[in-house]
Each structure stands twice: as C-alpha cells, then as structure tokens.
Amino acid sequence: MSLLVVGSIAIDTVETPWGRRDNLLGGSASHFSLAARFFSPVKLVSVVGGDWPAEHTQFLASRGIDVSGIQVVPTGKSFRWTGRYKPNMNDRETLDIELDVFGRFDPKISEEFRRSDYVFLANAAPTTQMKTLEQVPGCRLAVADTMELWIQTAHADVLKLLQKIDGLVINDSEAKLLADTENLVLAGHRVRKLGPRFVVIKKGEHGAMFFSEHETYVLPAYPTEKVIDPTGAGDSFAGAMMGYLAEQDNFDPETLKTAMAYGILVASFNVEDFGLVHMEAITRGDVEARMADYRKMLNF
Amino acid sequence: MSLLVVGSIAIDTVETPWGRRDNLLGGSASHFSLAARFFSPVKLVSVVGGDWPAEHTQFLASRGIDVSGIQVVPTGKSFRWTGRYKPNMNDRETLDIELDVFGRFDPKISEEFRRSDYVFLANAAPTTQMKTLEQVPGCRLAVADTMELWIQTAHADVLKLLQKIDGLVINDSEAKLLADTENLVLAGHRVRKLGPRFVVIKKGEHGAMFFSEHETYVLPAYPTEKVIDPTGAGDSFAGAMMGYLAEQDNFDPETLKTAMAYGILVASFNVEDFGLVHMEAITRGDVEARMADYRKMLNF
Q: pTM (2 decimals)?
C-alpha cells in the first residue's frame, strides 16, 4: 500500500569517535524513506532551499522514492544540522542548527499523495504535523514522532495531535518527559491514554517497547559491535516499521510486533556507518538474513 | 545437582521513592539463594557477627536453604548496608556501609559442600573468591560476580580470578570498566577473552546479554510497572540462572539461554517489593506463568 512521509530532509555534518563527515544527506524523512523502501514505495514531502544539492534528490529518487513532493524555496536555505556524539554514542550535542525553510514548513500534499493509506508525520512542530494530518483524512494509519522541544514548548499542541493520531513513536527520554515518570512501562501506558491506539518507545541500544490497550512488550536491539553514527537510527526504525505495515496492509497486534522487529533491525544497519552510507548499500536480503539471526536469538 | 553459593548475607536499610525499610535481610548470597531455591537445593556459605538476628537464618532455612555454612563470629558485627535510590531507580547512593566480619571473610568450605557441582562466587574481594575456588577443584561449573571497587583497586587479582572461572556475571558499568569501552557488545567479548568461557552482562531494566566464543545474544527485561526496590536484582538473576543450570545439570548454549531468561524473570519479581518480600512469597508456578508470558512476548 502507499506510504507517505512528511518531514525534514537536511544537510548534516556529524562527528563521532570514528571521525567526521561533512554535508551528508540527513533529516528524519531521508532516513525514514531509505528504511521504508525495502518494504513499500515511499512518497516523500519535504522542503529545501536554493542551496540544496541536486544529487541528494537524485540519490533519493534512484532508491525508488517519489521525490515529487519536495518543495524548493529558491530564496531560502536548507535545514542544516551539525552535531557531535560523545564516546558513549547515546549523548550528543548540537553544535549548530539552521532550520530556515524547514522552520517555516507548510506542507502541501498533492491530490495523489492525499490518497496514501499509511502516513508518517516525522518530527516537526505539532502544528505543522496537524496541517499534514488534515490533508489526509482518509488514511488508514497515521503515526507520528515528536521531540523534547515540542513537548516542552508546544505542550498543548502535542496533546491535540495525540488525540488525532493512531500511533506515536518516540524515544525513552521523550516518553519520560511526556508521562512525567522514570518508569518506561508506566510512561508507555500513560502516553497511550493521551490518545494514540499504540505507543512505541525507542530505547536506542536497548531496543524498543510497545504499548496498546492489551499488549505490552519489549524487544531488544540487535547486538552490534559497530556503532559508527547513530544519527537517524530512530527514523530508520520508524521507516522500516511503517514500510512493513504498508507492505502487509495490516496493523493487527502480530503484524505490529513483526514491524517493530524490522524497525530494530534496519536501525541496526543504519548505525553501522555514517549517515546513509550503510543504508544505501544493503538489500532486503541483508535485512532478512539479520531477521533470521534475530529470531534465532530470541528463541529458547 | 548441588549448588553452592559463597558470599555476603547482610542487614540492609533501604530507601526508595516508595518508602523506607529498616533491617531487612539482604546481601548477595541471600538474594541468590532465594532465587536459586526454585530450581535446586542451595548450600550457603557466609559469615555474620554476634548481632545477627537468628530469625534471618531461620527464614533462609525455612526456604530449604542449607545454612550450615554460615559462620558466626560472636565478637564481630554483621555486614550492614544503608542505601538510597534515586527516582530513576538505576542510580543509588550508599549512605552507610559496615563490612566488619565480611571484610575479613575467610571462607571455610566443609567436606560435604566441597563436593558441590555448581559454584557461585558472589561479590567479594577477588582473593576471597579465589580462596573458595581453591576448595572446590572438582566442581563442574564455577561462576563469579565482581564489582567496580575490585576492578579498580584489585585489578590484578580480578584478572587472576578470570583465568580460573568458567563464567562471569557482571553489570553493564562493570563490563565497560573492565573492557575499557562504552560498547557493551565489544565489552562482552573483550571480557570473555580475559578468561571465562562465557560472560553475562546484566543491564537492569534493559535485560541481559550473553557472550561465548560462538554466541552473542541479548534478552530484554520483563516489563514491569512496579519497581519498588532494585536491591539484589542482579543476585536474584544469578541465583535463578545458576539454579536452573544445576537443575538441568547442563550448560550447553541452549540451556544457558533458558537459564538467563529465568534469571531475568526471577529478577523481575525481586524488584517488585522491598528486600526479599516478594521473593519469599512467590512459587515456581508464578515463575513459570511469567515465563510463558515472556516466551509469548518474544515470539513473532
């Protein structure tokens, strides 16, 4: 089924204990799309400035992603992010951020894109996410991400959004903040009660948790020695998860669990090199081989 | 098969966001024994002072634990620990610690106890652990725990011990310190190369990882909303794991994985009330019910 993602595509400069890379293709929607494409065709809506390197768009298109929804603002500048990871790879500091055109992002969804069945609202201001949502009233499943900034500065808008979406995919610190508790199990259920039918909490190197009315479960991360650059891991997770749901055209509890497992595995590839370097090189076959290994790991 | 544990039994005072309890039965070997008893008879070797409450020993005996190896030093004082947990339940501060007789612990293993097939060296000075090990040369499986203090202050002795044991069960921060890396997968393999045939890294609320020459895997924690007091969770984990191995009289890869799962589940009961309150109340049936739930959670 058709899968729509609306969010940032950006130019990232990243420094990790393994080195530094300048001007990588980054952004939530880029990582999401590269992960989702293994499972479903992806339609991407985003915005860039006049400085956007054409090769980034060509690259996305070459991976089968429908880039016709990328708006270009010739007089504006693309979203740029520069960050540095600490040796533990969990903590990072933003050295520089220029939102520019993405800060004024007003998503326009084309008639064709409005017929998408599965929609992912990547991290953006909750009012921007709501504008997208209003344009896809007929979608079967709408899932969103958010971040601490919005939970703190646009709390009422985040709460409004939670009332309208089917699923929320957030990380552990966001869940704790939103639910005002240090216990992640409690946090998951509290956030679910704010609106969405299901909540997924991403725990980075510790895997992910799932919460619905009748289900609570945790799956561990795939153990990898090679953590080069965690940027976009959470978006890859969401991309693979949503891509699998769209492929199956189903979001019953069993399918959601398998989708979460695919999210975990594709995210494990994402972190094994800088930016999208590993993500562009792997195939669905690589993902399935790791899945076989993962299922074996969890079987006893 | 027979299972021997050598380590501390103590008087704990603990404060968590849920309240405070004074003079609880604590210590590594107490938590270990209460967890292992579901699977195998346990022989306990420890040391206490003249102030030791007789009811603590009676309680252990009433749960089927062979307490004949508890040495009493009438002129000495029992090991006491007072600690406070932060709201995240992962960080704790030791408010007071009196090792006294346990600080001078010189384990004497009886002839009968020396014939134990499975031996767990609970946290103690590595030289003390080595003294135990020398008295059980014929055991089938010797597994040890240690702590940051010994890794920092008795590094050479820890390394010597690692050469002599079959398995090591440590927590994540200890593994990182011992292996000098922030990546737990790398840490697990590095520590294994220091001697033991297998290494288990306990990650608290995030589960546990296993490392042997040909196996690397992670199992998640059982998701519980009710974390009242984490004291002794790691020892409960080790107790259930060793108890199951002794029950099966086997430590092939499949059995070790199941043993680790039991460790995770019994630890999840441990944290659901203060001290040993929940551990004394549950039955093997409760453990098996949670195991069925856990297997279902990991199946997709």
A: 0.94
